[in-house]
Amino acid sequence: MNHPAHARARARRFAMQALYQWDLSGTGLHDIRSQFLEAEDFERADKDYFIELFNHVTKNVESIDKNISEYLDRPIGQLDPVERAILRIATWELMHLLDVPYRVAINEAVQLCKKFGAEQGHTFVNGVLDKLAQQLRASEYKKTGTRVSSQ
């Protein structure tokens, strides 16, 4: 049986890839979503979580980007598109999915970035998300009092 955490991690990976495609190609949301849901290796992903992430991030991209932009040294459009997609997913999780601990959201984003992002991009993503977690999950962040490591 597939472990739920692994299925969610796969859903995040597919959501990142779908958001990347949407961001760069301008292909319609329905077409992209359908393409990923029909992908050969999708069956081990959490389908509902993928749909939730993809739908909510695309519908709320402006508010998500506004939150991210507060912690950037350049316009969000100048970010690496993989890192941008990863930041959007993790920011949505931090903003709205309170059942996902902030440390899990950050760690999953860092792992995705290590695998798919630019060299050392994971340290950038970790830094931005750590600052966002301090703001968006202040009470949870204070309880642990620790920063998530990008190592």
How many strand segments? 0
Low-confidence stretches: none
Helix fraction bin: over 70%
Counting DSSP H or I runs of 4 or more residues, the number of helices is 8
Keywords:
151 residues, N-utilizing Substance Protein B Homolog, Chain A
Provide a quick synopsis of the model.
With 151 residues, this protein is mainly alpha-helical.
Descriptive report:
With 151 residues, this protein is mostly helical. The protein has one domain: N-utilizing Substance Protein B Homolog, Chain A. It contains 8 helices and no strands. Helix 5 runs parallel beside helix 7 (121-136). It is globular, with a radius of gyration of 15 Å.
What are the SSEs and their pairings?
Blueprint lengths: L3 H22 L3 H9 L9 H13 L1 H9 L11 H16 L5 H15 L4 H16 L1 H7 L7
Helix pairs in contact: 1-2, 1-3, 1-5, 3-5, 4-5, 5-6, 5-7, 6-7, 7-8
